[in-house]
Amino acid sequence: MLDLMTNAIEGISDKKVTFADIRQESRVGTMLAVVNGALRRFNRTNRAGTVARVLVGECWGQASTTKEATKARLEMLLSEATKMAKASAKYSRKDIDLSNVNSEQKSVWLSVKEDPQDVSTEEKIDFVIALDKGMKIDDRIVNTNTSYQDGKLLIRLVNSEGARLEWDELRIRAFANPVAREGDRMHYDYDVVAGQTGYELIRGVDINEFTSRIAQGALDLLSAEKPPSGKMTIIMDGDTSGIIAHEVCGHGSEADEVVKERSFLTGMVEKRVGSDLVTMVDDGTLPGKLGSFPYDSEGTPATKTFIIEDGIFRGYMHTLETAAVMGVDPTGNGRAQDYNRRIFARMSNTFFGPGEWSTEEMISDTKDGLYIIKPMSGMEDVVGGGVQVSCLKGYVIKNGEKQQLVRSNALAGKVLDILATVDAVSKDMTFSGGTCGKGEEDWVSVTSGGPHMRAELIVGGG
Amino acid sequence: MNLSEIASKLVAKSEGAGASQAEAYAVLAKTSSIYIDDNIPKIADVKEEVGVGLKFITGKKIGFTSSTLLSESIEDVVERAMSMAKVSAEDAKFVSLPDPKKPAGSSDRFYDQTTGEADSDVLLERTMTLVSSAVSDNVSVPNGVLRASSTDFQITNSLGAEAESKSTMVFGYFTAKAEESNSVGEGVQRCWSRNLNDVDFAFIGEKLKHQALDVVQAKGFKENWKDAIAVLAPSEGSEMLGSMVGFAVSAENVNNRSSPWTDKVGDSVAHESVTIADNGLSEKGLLSAVVDDEGTPMQTTPILDKGVLKSYLYDSYNASQVDLASTGNGIRRDSRDAQGSFSSPVRCRSTTLEIPASTKSIDDIIGEVKRGVYIEHFAWPQADPLAGTFSNEIRNAQLIENGELTTKIKYALLVGNLYEAIQREVVFGFDLEVHNNRVMPTIAISGTEIVGQ
């Protein structure tokens, strides 16, 4: 297949085409869902497609298909992509020089202890049912939802600079969600384990601890109070600080948002953006993390990128194109959801770096505030640098002690104001795997997380 | 092979391999797109995807598998589905696939030829019309996408159900950035339609520009207003209300006991001002089709009539658990992305949620508000579907004082509980708009809190 793809690329004769690549993806995966103790869904997929990209001036044409990738069809995809790129290029204002991109010829295969494909379906079903039933610790748990997913992605990529790459990615995930009800009041909790790893991740789950903890979490929320509203001192858990790192600093540091000066972090390299306790990294090379990969969707090796170091902004996450425009090396952040979607600058594993505090010290050092745990969602504000993070729960802190539980809330503020107020960061780090959309779509696997952080934020509780 | 032949072959081979019942969904999705980046068309894209989803049933054991058939044959798909059903656990609640029924019209009832045949050249021209309207000395369009898609699906099962439905959809998402004396503002506009020619791109561009300029002029809200009335633009209110009601009336959630409206049919769950229907045959609906994605004719199902809960929404699986008929709400397709619908079995969800238009304009609604806020854009509009709580960051809004719009504001939180809010009078406008899988107008709710920063 790589030969076929290379031949098609080498057959491009149009001199206006300055760069081209072809990528073929094949995904196989299993999904199991259990509801209220019974298997509800058992899905397997085999989804494959081929996409060709062509660059003319600064405009791309892209054509994809799920039909068999014959020589004629690959040539047709390139021809369609060229036609579209040339039509758009009448608006082009400059040429992009991608002649220095990675031209490796390499195969990279992930090594795991236990490939999920070698584990019997019956064993996986038993695991998901056990996880689901484990949450039924009280009659007030009225609904339990559990899922297991594994997926293997095989990618082949060639480009006009001579790259011939093939690699695989393997991701695995288990999710559990109990719903508690008392009268008309309903609340839920959740937890997830996920990684770029084998079935050993699932074998490491302590089912009793995992399920009883989140079931109790949902039950406790039935008597939780409404949180206070207004600006206050917040201690965020690692997952919540990770959402802020990802949604606000992360999306604002994706270089496609910088080259067009949309991001509030445009022109901030070497400027102070937070207290000297703030360090932030995007690292696609971390072993086992959900957002890791050997190459991005353009064939650039994953790297570790320091975005903020001791409060100073250091740099952005790049695709081939943004790196060429800004005159720096690509960072391996050009990612696409799949063969149907575009490539643009995306995060991998993004997190704030650790500090020197213990979580207990941070709480005992806080006179009046909120300890916020479990984010539910976040939304980027690349233009304004604003924060919206919705969280499941928290605790009021009074005189250094964790007191009553409060229910769902949202954190808000301007991130540069928030990072300037960071005055305590914990040693402990947590990471959560999930998916990230950009502009409301284009979902890719990522990890966010980090340490507990203390800062001043706005809180609103519903 | 065409879609009908692929689906029939999958079902026949499954039956031959021992399936007691089988269901095949075969789909061809074609999409053309233009992505805007910094005022120019950055990526022009065309994609064509054929996919199948096969449900293989032996007794009460079910295996579902999907494929693009690029790297495997129909026989491989059947073999995999059969092996899955063998090792699957029994689903005691499964009764049967749906019986064949007459579709609600001809297969192309919801297909618009102009949209289905729109290529990247057509979209390029429409998109640049929008960009030209929006761009000025201090306003740019950094991001945008316009897609036109056609979906042609065939559903076939071993009980004789055999139906096809073709439809089209247009989705657009654009942002504008305005700058004035060191202050920046962002506008966001989306468009959803079944017909490309129904979209006024120049108007959207103008609206985008003015929204961005409004945000530049807006001031950060510093106060805290309790018991305020929130007037929500259709894009924001429909997402909050539609997603919450859609969750509460899905029979899947009702049967699972996770819906707050479980066992409440016939009860008054909202104020008499609230009437909502699910319309699978909506002329404007992006999921409209002559059959749902498991072959049941689509229909209109009243959900709330003057605040009284009239019905839940059923697919065949959830309907059979309570001895009712499916309401045609077994859905695989998505209202903004035509690709990938074959990769999962149906889910029980709303098709197009519709609220009838009132006679009130936005000005009429605002004129009745003593103290509140008119919100055009949240960071993301959402409400907890279990508890109804919401706490959404306001990105573009204007205060309402004594019936008049006053200060433009941004960076505040709107806090409240939507299940509780709809038990008080809700005021609706006449300005129906399509957003996602909803056709809803401006919505005004009471009892909210505006928390300033």
Q: Assign a percent range to the helix content of chain A.
A: 10-25%
Main interface by residue count = A-B, 89 and 90 residues
Rg of chain B (CA only): 24 Å
Largest sheet of chain B: 6 strands, antiparallel
Count of helix runs of chain A: 10
Total number of β-strand segments of chain B? 22
Main sheet specs of chain A? 8 strands, mixed
Class derived from helix and strand content of chain A:
alpha+beta
User: In terms of per-residue confidence, which ranges of chain A show pLDDT below 50 for 5 or more consecutive residues?
Assistant: none
Set out the fold topology.
The complex is a heterodimer of chains A (462) and B (453).
Chain A: H1 2-10, E1 17-35, E2 38-56, E3 59-65, H2 71-88, E4 105-108, H3 121-134, E5 141-159, E6 164-182, E7 185-188, E8 191-195, H4 200-203, H5 207-221, E9 230-236, H6 238-252, H7 256-259, E10 280-283, E11 304-309, E12 312-313, H8 320-326, E13 334-335, E14 344-345, E15 349-352, H9 359-364, E16 368-379, E17 386-398, E18 401-406, E19 409-414, H10 415-420, E20 424-438, E21 441-461
Parallel strand pairs in A: 4-6, 9-16, 15-21
Antiparallel strand pairs in A: 1-2, 1-5, 2-3, 5-6, 6-7, 6-8, 9-21, 10-11, 10-15, 11-12, 13-14, 16-17, 17-18, 17-19, 19-21, 20-21
Chain B: H1 3-16, E1 21-37, E2 40-58, E3 61-67, H2 74-87, H3 113-116, H4 120-134, E4 139-157, E5 162-180, E6 183-193, H5 201-217, E7 219-220, E8 224-232, H6 234-249, H7 251-256, E9 276-279, E10 300-305, E11 308-309, H8 316-321, E12 330-331, E13 347-348, E14 353-354, H9 362-367, E15 371-378, E16 389-401, E17 404-410, E18 412-417, H10 418-421, E19 427-428, E20 433-435, E21 438-440, E22 443-452
Parallel strand pairs in B: 7-17, 8-15, 14-21
Antiparallel strand pairs in B: 1-2, 1-4, 2-3, 4-5, 5-6, 8-22, 9-10, 9-14, 10-11, 12-13, 15-16, 16-17, 16-18, 18-22, 19-22, 20-21
Short description:
The complex is a heterodimer of chains A (462) and B (453). Chain A folds into 2 domains: 2-221, PmbA/TldD fold (2-Layer Sandwich), CATH 3.30.2290.10; 230-461, no CATH class. Chain A has 462 residues and is α+β, with helices and mostly antiparallel strands.
